[in-house]
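User: Fold both of these, please.

Assistant: Here is the first one.
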Amino acid sequence: MSGTGSPDFFYREAQRLGYVARSAFKLLQIQKQYKLITPGSSVLDLGCAPGAWLQVACQNLGPLTKGGVVVGIDVKKVKVPQHNCDSRVQTVCADIMNFSRDRIRALSPQKSFSVILSDMCPPVSGITTTDSAISFELGMRALDIAVGRGASAQMEGYLEGSATCSNEEDDNGVLQKGGHLVIKLLESEDVQEVRRICKPLFRKASWLRPKATRSSSREIYLICQGLQSQKKV
């Protein structure tokens, strides 16, 4: 495969299986290896456009009788795909940098989520340092939403002065104890710092570059498993 938009095996398989994008295979591999989403899970999908991860997440909720919910948030208006999605899937058009945790909580019957997926990525400018910096900020916002500002003193230096939501009513995150977090980042010197921050917060934090990632891409995923009890600071 050469060009960014060139059809390849994953593109053709996505069309054959009814996925709206080849990116579905990234989450399919993550799910196969880590089994983050279980029947009845409550899943938050940050940067959900065009909807492929919504499809995969809903597929793994099990039958309707098991319950569960999938909530997608994106700056673009995203229509819930008909294939592989059911009534448990909903989308919200919002800028996650200005969308408070309280408003996110209100989207889940449990007022929290067992799995948070962040596939957010900045529009590629071609300037490596700029793209990496924005990707890092989006990744830190996903972590902030999940664990809250009060969860780790290590986060304060990175969140201070950033574009994260300034009208939060409390410091608590929306990820349940024992829950899982997936963050997409662009490889840079800063990505190891994100893992360093996550390691004491989660039972395990590891890197994965899915097979469906294009060879020209710098995307890498941080898989954080099992949010642990945290001392507020």
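And the second sequence with its predicted structure:
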Amino acid sequence: MTDWVLRLIDAGGYWGIFALMVLENLFPPIPSELIMGIGGIRVGQGRMDMGLLLLAGTLGTTLGNYAWYLVGRLLGFERLRPLVDRFGRWLTMEWRDVEALDRIFMRYGQIAVFVFRFMPVFRTMISLPAGLFRMGHIPFLLWTMAGALIWNIILAGAGYVLGYNFRDIDTWIGPLATATVAIAAIAYLYRLATWRPRGQG
């Protein structure tokens, strides 16, 4: 994956960074760590400007997340009810659970959107409930941009400092993301096996 990302960045410059960061948030297996890290390397080589790199990466991240937010917004909170009623067993939740999540998200949603920007895999997933639970467009965009900017500064800064050694990050990003997904899958299977509707003992 490293060579493919390198070619696109070198061919497209800032537009390549922007496009890759949009794709990274639509298809999470593409690692932002690698994209912005290589961008940082290019800054160290004098081939990119750090400010423009961060602008392209942050706008790409925000646009990719906004797409998932709009999907949630279009689906809508009330349209969830038939799905929950029908597939509640597989979702391991009842409608009262969704209502509780709605209350929690309305209170802490902005913090969640910001904090989840620093978590592998889940940083994109948080955009869907943000739309479902009707978080405002402007707050969502602002908190997403704030979290993305900080995360991109860290990644690009690491690439700038570490140079070509940063390319080795691809060898452990993949296993880390896989482990995160595996843990989430195990947690879901355990909840699925132990979950009972409140009316049952």
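The chain has one domain: 2-194.
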